Amino acid sequence: MTNLLTQVTNDEGITTLTLNQPERRNSLSLDMLRALGDALSDVAANDASRVVVLSAAGHVFCAGHDLKEIRGQFGSYAFQKELFEKCSEVMQQIVHLPQPVIARVAGVATAAGCQLVASCDLAVAENGARFATPGVNIGLFCSTPMVALSRNVSRKHAMEMLLTGDMIDAERAEKIGLVNRVVAPELLDETVYTIAATIAGKSAHTLNVGKTAFYRQLEMPLDEAYHYTADVMASNVVSHDAKEGISAFLDKRQPEWRHK
């Protein structure tokens, strides 16, 4: 499965995971999902990694599930259940990963590929990128993709994508909150890695605290969310890096992170 995914970590703490099966439109076959899940597990345990860039080789970011694989297993409910459960597991791995994840989107991201973009913490797309949840067009509603989609864009925008299956362009994706920025293709890498480098320069401990709290509080009632985040901040402020960061700010010097 090593040919399905490439992983590169540079000296600045940025890990790049690249879907590497362009001849199959980087589809999320069961093997691809297993490879991506394994890579995410490795990254989670890598203290040298501060931020992750999720990229793809070729002209398609990800075309979703491998429909030929699905058709070949029409007779096996067990296979279909394993496939969609593994996909759901990988999407949750991204959300629960200690490091922030930035989707670098060039080309088309459809169905579970759109789900992959929505599951990342940030997304930057080239201006020619397009997005869709077109399962309704082939009789297979994008039920698992809608979990991530509906948590990133408003209900009506999500329902429009899910019910029509229509493709939207990058500018529309930015307007509805599916991606953060849209840039010219020649600026895609510069933009993505500038953001990644900015994040990588922060305390890894602080990033983990903040990312974890962000997703947890989203599902809470307002009063519970404030109670929870007040406790998070109180715990955060007594950590080494918060003490160092506050002192460095007051002393007008650069902080020296220990990532704890």
Automatic annotation (TrEMBL):
Biological source species: Marinobacter litoralis
GO molecular function: hydro-lyase activity
Function: May play a role in fatty acid biosynthesis and insulin sensitivity.
Name this polypeptide is given: Enoyl-CoA hydratase domain-containing protein 3, mitochondrial
Keywords: Fatty acid metabolism, Lipid metabolism, Lyase, Transit peptide
Family, similarity comment: Belongs to the enoyl-CoA hydratase/isomerase family.
Entries under CDD domains matching the protein: crotonase-like
GO biological process: fatty acid metabolic process
Xref: Pfam families: ECH_1 (PF00378)
Gene3D superfamilies: 2-enoyl-CoA Hydratase, Chain A, domain 1, Lyase 2-enoyl-coa Hydratase, Chain A, domain 2
